[in-house]
Design brief:
alpha/beta; Rossmann fold; four-stranded parallel sheet; 12 helices
Amino acid sequence: MRHFLSISDCSAEELNDLLAESISLKKLYKTGGRDVCLGGKVLAMVFEKPSLRTRISFQVAMSDLGGSSIFIRPEDIGGIGKREPIKDMARVLSRYVDGIMARTFEHNTVVELARFATVPVINALTELSHPCQAMADMLTIKEHLGQLEGVKIAYVGDGNNVARSLAFAAAKLDMKLVVASPKGYELDWGTVEKTNSIKAESVSITNDPIKAVAGADVVYTDTWVSMGQENEKQKRIKDFEGFQVNDDLLKSAPPGVKIMHCLPAYRGCEITDEAVESPDSIIFDQSENRLHFQRALVKKLMSPTA
């Protein structure tokens, strides 16, 4: 495992190993232990899109493991791929640091970084994929439900990068995912076909959120308006009417169904305040687990002894 760009690139064994390491390191740090396996190592963190959870969790993860990080904004380097080619940036950074984390608009940016870098490259979000989030979600589900195998996730909302990463995680880890979206916003059919070729009937799509949440162990949602889609905001809010995770929708799910959201949450749009604050909400455990998964990930990719 040289890079971490997409869950689709990873084997089930690699994903389960990362989850096991996440659990182990979480227990270690929660009990006051420390693993300084990345002493002297430096992670470059390249951001086209701002983030609270991504930046802080990666910085803390590197610090926890004895390493350090450098935060790089687009304006610091004259724009990614603008002032100089991405392939040049990849090779220059590889001479200075031990790993590159990138949060970008276009997925091809992280692909090209990985192609030319001689150090590990981590996809911290692109328009196509959000693998770190999906794996933190898997960790959270495993902690709360005791297993992943056979778990049904009902994802209600836009068939976006998060939904796509959850689909590949479900297929690789023997889960079920139903993605409920308005017409025109469904998870792309190519992803559905590819995931179901990995594990038959693991992923399905519907335009009926009530049907999706029936029998679900987890109800998951995400923002209806992602960064870069601000000019579509009013249209999207109208189009997603009926897809809000609220008390009415949750009545169609089993009692005690777990509620998840990758944050930031726009309360009153894709989810109500009551659902976020529900006793069944595991949203903030999910957020915390970004740190614990990413700590395991950078150890796996950047430690000489991992």
